[in-house]
Amino acid sequence: MSYEVKGVVALSKGAPVTIETILVPDPGPGEAVVDVQACGVCHTDLHYREGGINDEFPFLLGHEAAGVVSAIGEGVTNVAVGDYVVLNWRAVCGECRACLAGKPWYCFNTHNAAQKMTLADGTELSPALGIGAFVEKTLVHSGQCTKVDPAAPPTAAGLLGCGVMAGVGAAINTGGVTRGNSVAVFGCGGVGDAAIAGSKLAGATTIIAVDIDDRKLEWAKGMGATHTVNSRETDAVARVRELTGGFGVDVAIDAVGHPAVFEQAFYARDLAGTVVLVGVPNPTMEVTLPMIEVFGRGGAIKSSWYGDCLPSRDFPMLIDLYLQGRFDLDAFVSETIGLDAVEAAFEKMHAGEVLRSVVVFDK
Ligand SMILES: NC(=O)c1ccc[n+]([C@@H]2O[C@H](COP(=O)([O-])OP(=O)(O)OC[C@H]3O[C@@H](n4cnc5c(N)ncnc54)[C@H](O)[C@@H]3O)[C@@H](O)[C@H]2O)c1
Ligand SMILES: [Zn+2]
Ligand SMILES: [Zn+2]
């Protein structure tokens, strides 16, 4: 048996997304079917649609979601029908060289559902980040379901599934931001603002938001930025240095994924500081840096895959902080929309009008 539901699909490179009938198989061994309640629109969905991730069209988009487990396959023990979960794209395997080395947040062989969801004509879909959640029901590996406190509404909880976790983790896990640090975040969308909120949570005392859009900078202040820089009008590197006694920041985070921005982050950090790349570059982008600067500045240049998070450890912790009023997930939700408005949400994201549009399924 399979379920027939509606979902948002990118059929071909660059084409507007469409709503299609999706066939979701009954869960097999180790799999679960989740009734999606809310799913945020992340810039990575747009990267998929533009062919910037890979060419495995058609994609079932959406990957930042919360919902309720509605069926489980054989051998599933970590979740039961009725459990409220946030979906993750890091179901760690426990067996790869990263897991065996005690660093499961780098897991090189994460689990996804073995079966494929398909279009009505049987065409197999590539689910975005192994999830695919702009759909009423989705099939995932049970390890992709992380149970959280149902007191947190799905519009807020779902955001932990990608962008907010990526940003918070880029600051705290990858960048190691701690009390008294100075941080600069380049690009203040959902991911960058989460890096700002995460830096505040970790006790950073100088948090500089850099963007080319004044609206974004205004929102960034609400997330905890102590200073803002419009890098279209001001030399961002010079201004960051000025704001940090001439030295640069301890941690500089590129939450755009663009060579010019990466260079700014590289030069805006202090000696022995850390540069974190959490924005996703496209496959054609290149950076050229004087090697003496790479050596002479010391410190570290790190990529942050999914904020180096461990969903089982980090999602419930952030939900607890949210429920205690210490981490404002609701502030990331600019609007709730129906499935039919994802294409419009991409345009709003592109125009800088939203932090997160969140698809909800009672609309
Ligand atoms: N590493 C990961 O695991 C991970 C996870 C989720 C998203 N991402 C990536 O993070 C990036 C940001 O995602 P998002 O959802 O926040 O996107 P978004 O579109 O909401 O935000 C991007 C922000 O960057 C700003 N910006 C654009 N060009 C700029 C420039 N030259 N200088 C300064 N600011 C600039 C925009 O004004 C906007 O505020 C994307 O590349 C996305 O694919 C990475
Ligand atoms: Zn592993
Ligand atoms: Zn994402």
Q: Could you write a compact summary of the structure shown?
A:
The chain has 363 residues and is of the alpha/beta class. It is 26% helix and 27% strand. The structure holds nicotinamide-adenine-dinucleotide and zinc ion (2 copies).
Commentary on this structure:
The protein is α/β, with parallel strands linked by helices and 363 residues long. Helices cover 26% and strands 27% of the residues. Strands 3, 5, 6, 9, 10, 17 and 18 form a seven-stranded mixed beta sheet that branches. It is globular. The two termini are 27 Å apart. Bound molecules: nicotinamide-adenine-dinucleotide and zinc ion (2 copies). The site of one zinc ion has 9 residues, from helix 2.
Query: Which structural class do the helices and strands define?
Result: alpha/beta
The N- and C-terminal alpha carbons lie at a distance of 27 Å
- The ordered H/E elements are EEEHEEEHEEEEHHEHEHEHEHEHEHEHE
- Helix content range: 25-40%
Quaternary state of this entry equals: single chain
* Shape estimate: globular
For the largest beta-sheet, the strand count, sense and barrel status come to: 7 strands, mixed
Q: Hey, roughly how much beta strand do the residues contain? A: 25-35%
Provide the low-confidence segments as ranges: none
Number of helices: 11
Mean pLDDT: 97
Count of beta strands:
18
Bound molecules: nicotinamide-adenine-dinucleotide, zinc ion
Q: Specify Rg, calculated over alpha carbons.
A: 20 Å
